[in-house]
């Protein structure tokens, strides 16, 4: 596996990012990994490595441009300072960089705040080949998803069950493999193995299996 720290040329200014790719990767499927509200930390970077093991090139942009925390109050402040449209433009710049490097198709997978931004990217960029949103939703406001989308939500999260049911129906109606999966007893952030109070190993493993199968099907 090859790992690299690089800079992306983004509209709001240079954007640091972490890249992991299989040895010898010169083109093929790729994934943008989108951070939780904590920032670009080792947990998010580890998902890039896991994608590289699956044969994808994976990039995680540092959307906070250096901001990083483990405290919820500070994480909330960092997230509130992040302007939604600017973050999506940063992600679009990351997508462009991957394509310039030889990516044939690009997907996105995000967590928490990154799940919300995954939806926003899928609603705004038709170059995206597939989207996987983990415990993060957005209000489409009459917009249509431009890519097949998979969603993973724990039943003990704070999302309104009616919103989840409505989104599940929208995804199923697409007929392209889009789907919402719920995980009994799982709380928010159940895939984050650095947060023992939230991590649910069985649910996390199943969500990862479903996500990678979906992304292989849409991007390979």
Write out key terms for the chains shown.
eight-stranded mixed sheet; Rossmann fold; 6 helices; 8 strands; 37% helix; alpha/beta
Draw up the topology in text.
Blueprint: E1 2-8, E2 15-21, E3 28-34, H1 42-53, E4 57-61, H2 72-81, H3 84-100, E5 103-111, H4 113-122, E6 128-134, E7 149-154, H5 161-174, E8 179-183, H6 201-219
The N- and C-terminal alpha carbons lie at a distance of 19 Å
Q: Biggest sheet, strands in spatial order?
A: 1-2-4-3-5-6-7-8
Helical residues, percent: 25-40%
CATH superfamily: Alpha/Beta hydrolase fold, catalytic domain
Which sheet architecture does the biggest sheet show?
Answer: 8 strands, mixed
Describe the structure.
The protein has helices at 42-53, 72-81, 84-100, 113-122, 161-174, 201-219, and strands spanning 2-8, 15-21, 28-34, 57-61, 103-111, 128-134, 149-154, 179-183. The chain is α/β, with parallel strands linked by helices. The mean pLDDT is 95.
Write a short abstract of this structure:
The protein is an alpha/beta fold. The protein has helices spanning 42-53, 72-81, 84-100, 113-122, 161-174, 201-219; strands spanning 2-8, 15-21, 28-34, 57-61, 103-111, 128-134, 149-154, 179-183.
């Amino acid at each position: 596996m090859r790992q690299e720290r690089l800079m992306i040329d983004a509209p709001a200014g240079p954007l640091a990012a972490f890249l992991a790719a299989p040895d010898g990767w010169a083109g093929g499927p790729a994934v943008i990994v989108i951070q939780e509200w904590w920032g670009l930390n080792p947990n998010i970077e580890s998902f890039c490595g896991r994608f590289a093991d699956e044969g994808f090139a994976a990039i995680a942009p540092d959307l906070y441009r250096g901001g990083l925390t483990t405290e919820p109050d500070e994480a909330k402040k960092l997230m509130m300072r992040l302007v939604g449209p600017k973050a999506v433009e940063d992600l679009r710049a990351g997508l462009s960089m991957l394509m310039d490097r030889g990516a044939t198709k690009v997907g996105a997978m995000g967590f928490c705040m990154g799940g919300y931004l995954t939806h926003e990217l899928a609603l705004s960029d038709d170059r995206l080949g597939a989207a996987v949103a983990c415990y993060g939703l957005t209000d489409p406001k009459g917009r249509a998803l431009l890519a097949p989308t998979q969603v993973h939500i724990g039943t003990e999260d704070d999302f309104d069950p009616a919103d989840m049911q409505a989104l599940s129906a929208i995804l199923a109606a697409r007929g392209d493999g889009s789907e919402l999966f719920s995980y009994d007893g799982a709380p928010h952030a159940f895939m984050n193995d650095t947060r023992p109070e939230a991590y649910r190993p069985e649910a996390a493993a199943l969500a990862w299996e479903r996500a990678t199968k979906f992304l292989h099907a849409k991007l390979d």
